[in-house]
């Protein structure tokens, strides 16, 4: 594992109807949904972690603690930035932020845990 504190990755998307609270079922308005913002943040953290992991290893999310601070309309670009702030063995902690084209729309922390993908899936499939 070659990950280090300060490593960073950015994920982006253009808000489409499928990303809205109304489409997702988390609200009734056609604005970027909180679950999609969290998903974009998690994606940025996943991609950041994958840059420093050997083949066969991945990460799984363990916690999300974020606030969604501003609404974003359809057709606007949003980006999430994940930065590693702590590495404790296989536990990774990220500072996550989200922005639309006008302002910061979300921030918080996200945890991921490094796993051996094959062993993890074997254990899950034994349930």
From TrEMBL:
Coiled coil segments of this chain: none
InterPro entries (UniProt xref): FlK, FlK-like_dom, HotDog_dom_sf
Listed Gene3D superfamilies: Hotdog Thioesterase
Top-level taxonomic group: Bacteria
Lineage, highest ranks first: Bacteria, Bacillati, Bacillota, Clostridia, Eubacteriales
Pfam families (UniProt xref): FlK (PF22636)
PANTHER family xref list: BLR0278 PROTEIN, THIOESTERASE DOMAIN-CONTAINING PROTEIN
Annotated organism of origin: Fusibacter ferrireducens
Record's protein name: Thioesterase family protein
Listed SUPFAM superfamilies: Thioesterase/thiol ester dehydrase-isomerase
Residues of the Fluoroacetyl-CoA-specific thioesterase-like domain: 15-118
């Amino acid at each position: 594992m070659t990950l280090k504190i300060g490593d960073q990755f950015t994920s982006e998307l253009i808000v489409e109807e499928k990303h809205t609270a109304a489409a997702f079922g988390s609200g009734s308005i056609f604005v970027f949904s909180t679950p999609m913002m969290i998903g974009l943040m998690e994606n940025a953290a996943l991609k950041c972690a994958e840059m420093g992991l050997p083949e066969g290893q991945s990460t799984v999310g363990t916690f999300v603690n974020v606030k969604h601070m501003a609404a974003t309309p359809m057709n606007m670009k949003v980006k999430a930035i994940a930065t590693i702030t702590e590495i404790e063995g296989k536990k990774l902690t990220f500072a996550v932020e989200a922005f639309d084209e006008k302002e910061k729309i979300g921030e918080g922390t996200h945890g991921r845990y490094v796993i051996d993908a094959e062993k993890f899936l074997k254990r899950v499939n034994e349930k």
